[in-house]
Amino acid sequence: MLTITIISFLLFTVLVAVGTWLIVRKHETKSSKGFFLAGRSLTFPVIAGSLLLTNLSTEQMVGLNGSAFKEGMSVMAWEVVAVVALILMSLWFLPKFLRAGVTTVPEYLRLRFDKTTGAICNIVFLVSYIVILLPIILYTGARGMIDILDLAPIIGVESEVTQLYILVVVVAVIGSAYALSGGLSSCAVSDTLNGIGLLIGGFMISFFAFKTLGDGSFSHGVNTFFQDGGSRLNSIGAAKSEAPFFGLFTGILLIHTFYWCTNQQIIQRTLGAKSLAEGQKGVLLTGALKLLGPLYLVIPGMIAAMLLMKGALNIPVNPETGLAVSDKAYGALVNMVLPAPLKGFFAAVLLGAILSSFNSVLNSICTLFSQDVYKCWINPEADDRKLVRNGQIFGFIVTIVSIIIAPMLMYAGSIFGYLQGMNGLTFIPLLAVVIVAMNTRRVPAAAANTILILGMILNGLGYFVSPVKEWAAAIGQFHFVGIVFVLMVVSMLVWGWIKPQPVPFANEDAKVTDLTPWKYTLLISIILLIIIVAIYLYFADFSVLQSGVPEYPKAPVQ
Question: What secondary structure letter does DSSP report for 132?
Answer without folding.
Answer: I
